[in-house]
Structure formats: structure tokens, C-alpha cells
Amino acid sequence: MSEIKELNKTKELKEQLFFKPDHIQKFIGAEKQGEANHFSEGYKTFLSSCKTERECVDYIKSEAQKNGFREFDRDGKYKPGDKFYYANRNKAIVIGTIGQKNPEEGLSILASHIDSPRIDLKPRPIYEKSELCYFKTHYYGGIKKYQWTALPLAIHGKVVKKNGEELTLKIGELEDEPLFCITDLLPHLADDQMKRPFSKGIMGEELNLLVGSLPYLTDSGETSDSADLVKLNILKILNDKYGLVEQDMVTAEISLVPIFKARDVGFDRSLIGAYGQDDRVCAYASLMSHLKLDIPTYTALTVFADKEETGSEGNTGLESFFFEFFVEDLASKMGANFRKVLANSCCLSADVNAAFDPSWPDAFEKSNTAMLNHGAVVTKYTGSRGKSDTSDATAEFVYKITTILDENKVAWQPGMFGKVDTGGGGTVAKYIARLNVDVIDVGVPVLSMHAPYEITSKLDIYMLNQAFEAFLRRGK
Q: Does pTM surpass 0.90?
């Protein structure tokens, strides 16, 4: 009996002192499981229809308007409960709800990004070689280039024609539309290619998009002896259907994205596979949590930024001043001191983290790596070797956020980007921290991050939404 008592005492002591993130099903029953599955259906629809930052902004703006949000008025006055949005060049957007407290007591900020790794076109993309027509490309963000070959791709983009007319392109998503691909060398002839270092198996200049093969025919049905007839035929098709000429490509923003629709993965349908889940999973969860707000205690701002995958540079990324200036405008309209507003604010940098992959265990330090189905990931710092290029949340703020999660029964886990001398990554947290705002990363774990097809857990996504709701309701 004494041995049994000692074992029980040891077990109780371990439960009291040890920290071990539990499988999320410990936190939710069958009813919540159904809610998670239902939430994922809307998320899949969002992923399948929003594959560029412009498309995300259009979606967010539309959903905000349906829920009573109105365009931000710099000359207007705002009171608790008022809802607004501010779109920056249709590539980034902020939505907000005025809270009960004076803004000088701080804001509740959610900050995600809506751009994802992809392939873009060069300014002069179209060329013909050996009677085939191609678009030349430049990849956007951190990708494994070989993953983008022999893959069905769609063209998405915005064109401003010579006459000033604006045109939105989306070609390849529908069954009756053509799609496009980047070819790869067959294994029978790839001995030299296979001897290259893995990182150079496919080079950037080899990511050429195949767009056609037939030459232009004269009215009599014959070809002439002039060069670039396949290129001419493709340009003729683009001109006939879209009114484009080659110069229009120079001013355009055109991207190549996988045509995949978001789908359930696994016999148990517990996972979601889709392109662009980094970071649209956090964008969707934060949007849905904000749309449900009534009148929060603290004024809530949810920002959806561009350019994170290339360093947040540019006037639609968070390294620019667009968000800072917006907060300053809002503070001035409410008679608040801008610096006090920021100094007392709290932010969840809503971004993903790496999920432990048992097929590649050597890349991870398992006890500090997030697991699928263990809830939202709280990432104290990102960066790389020596904690470089990152924000590092204070002990007080980590306690504050994790206490909110615990009190609201949100399953969460700590996470890092792989082993110390192996991993590394960045988020928008450091740009928010630069404003003297307390910030920490909260997201979900992702398998195959930055690949054309990423994997997430439905339960984690639902729990992330619960985390964001609890944060925006803080103080209630």
C-alpha cells in the first residue's frame, strides 16, 4: 500500500509541477468539435477564393461592410461601438471597433499578413524559344523552387492598360479555363541536374511558365517566315480577350498561384490542405473574431498587412508608417495622446509556426516545437541564431497573454522555429514592437510551410479563433 501511495504522490506532484501541452480534445467535447469543423468550412472557402493580398482585402472589406463597418473618416468623430475599416492601396487593410475605455489606456491589436510565397512575372515576361512561348518569372518570398515545377498554376493579377483602364485577371481556376505550368527535366535525362546541390536543383531563371505552342496563322491559314510567331499568337489571344498589349505587362502585378482548392486531409478529415495558409489562417481567424465583437473594453484594431514574406518592405508592409499614421489619426480624432495610446497597447502578432514533422525529426528540438492538435502556438521570439532580427516578449507580457488563454480554456503551446543553429524565421512582431507596443506571436503550427500545399489542423485553427476572441474581449 505504501508503494501505491508513493506512486500516487509522485503522479500528483508531476501533474502539479510539470508543463505538458495536452491534445486539444481534452479541452473540447463533441459539440465544440462540431463547431471546429463548421468553422473550417468557411475558412476553406476563404482560402480557395483569396490567393493574393488584393483578393484578401476585397474579401475582408466585403465581410466588414456586411457587419456594419464603414470606411474610416479622418474628419469624423467616433464613440464606443463604432466600427470602421481603412484600406491601404487595396493591398493591406485595418478594421477597428471603438471600445469603452479611453484609447490612452491602450488598444487590443491583432496583426497578421495576407501575402504568401508565390511566383511573380518579370516586367517584360513574354518570350519565345524553340517554338514555345513562356513567361519569365521572379519568385516572391522564401520557397523551395523545385516544388513549383510540374505544378498546375493559375494567373492572378491586376493590370492598368495604356488607356488607364484597370483589369483584374484570374485565369486557370475554372474547369473550362486553361492552366499553366513550369516544366521540369525528365529523370531519364536529369543526371547532370541531379548532381547539382539540392538548393540549386532548380534555379530562379529556370522557373519559366509555359503559356503556348502554336504560331500565329494568317487569314489564309498559313504561317509566315518571320520570327516569334508563337509569341505573336499568344499576344493576339491576350489582345482579343483582354485588350492587352505587351507594354501592359510592364505596369502589371501578375502572380502565379496553385490552382488547388482547400480540402480536408486524412481519413478522419482532421486536417486542411491548401495553398497560402501562411499566413491567411491567422488572417481569417482574426477577422472572424473581430467581426463578432460588440463593444469591447479596449478599442480593437485588426491589421492585415502585405509584404511580410519579403521583409515587410514597401508602403503596404508593416515596416512602413501606414499603420502608425493610422493609429495617430485615430488617436487625434478621440483627443488621445498618440504616444500614450501605443505605449499602453497590446498586440498579438498573428503568425504561424513550424509543426513538428516526424519524417524530419532532426530539424526540430521536440520539447520546444509545436505539435498539430495541441492548440494555438505562443512564440515568445522568432529570429535566427543568437535571437537576431526579432522581438522578444517580456516575462510580464507572456504571463498576461497566457493567463488570458488559460482563463478562457484555450489550449495553447509554446513553439520555436527548429533547432537553435538550424532554424530561423521572422514575423511582423518586431515592427509592432518598434512602436513601443507589447507584442507576442500567436498562431497555429503548419506542416510543409511555404510549400504550394500546406497542412494545418482544424482543431488548432478553431482554438486560434478562440484565443483571438478572448484577447479582444479582455477586460470584460
A: yes
